[in-house]
Amino acid sequence: MKKIIITSILSSLICVASFGQSLYRTILSHNGQLTQYNINHWTDAITDAVEGDTVYFTPGYFPGSVTITKAITLIGAGVAQTDSWWYDSEGVSALHSALLGSGISGQSTTIGQSVIIDIDETPTLTTNLLEGFKINNEISIKKSVNNLSIKRCHMSWLSGDATCSNLNLGSCRIGTLYCGFMENPYIYNCYFNDLQVQGNTLTFNNISFVDIYNAPGCTFINCIDGDGYYNEVTGGIYINCLYESDLTGNGTTYESCWQYEDGWNLSKDQLTTAGYIGNDGKVIGPLGGSAPFTLIPSQPYVSSQSVTYDAVENKLNVNITVKKGK
Q1: What is the pLDDT of residues 217-235, one digit of tens each?
Q2: What is the pairing mode between strands 154-160 and 173-178?
Q3: Which of 43, 97, 111, 200 is the most interior residue, by most CB within 10 Å?
Q4: Do 125 and 151 form a contact (C-beta atoms < 8 A)?
């Protein structure tokens, strides 16, 4: 069966909320009606959605790629603690482990290949487009989108073929970020292996990065500079940051920063004890800010439920508490 229309309010809530009990499903929410799709029809949910709809994903592996051609919202259950690609579990420093957070056990919501964003007419979005996914390949933006928001996702790289204004990129783990398509982005609480800034003058908040390329005049606030490889990094401004190599010779300035050697081996506790904190009062880098790397699902979930029989009234009392994650 391709899909199942759920008409009962109670079963609808449990279907969406108890995602951990039913893997490999997508649920389309349209005007208060929920439609559940089987694993081999997960892209049909996206095809059937119209502008303003939301498609929820349970944990599980969703094979192949998907192209988004309209202003809809896709929400996954997040990236699980057992996913070693996110947590770099072996052979890395204590700081890497601290930076990459801690989450729930279980299974990630994984898209097997790529997500392609190809929406006509340069829409201005009002909700998150993508949240809570592990994407094995890339996110590729083919056409301009205003206010594009991607949160709590993990991908190999993010790139674009068209200029996008006001990109909101938060609590993500990205292998390589190509910044040439960004105009006035807000990038925060992220971890990058490679930052390909491509000559843009950008501001980064509470991020960690290893390699950085072609980054003249960028501002880094509460960040950790991993000192992997520099190329054309000039005239930068560092505020409340950890850094290893002093770049004052090329015009970079430092305010309330700390220089370290082999800082990637510092644990979260050591960072806190040593006073390496940002102006938000929390550890600098991706751990700073509000609830970084949270894996609480954004879709509604059942936090408690009970059924009791009232013999006097001869009826069942059903109590369900539904909450929405952060």
Answers
A1: 999 998 888 766 777 788 9
A2: parallel
A3: 111
A4: no
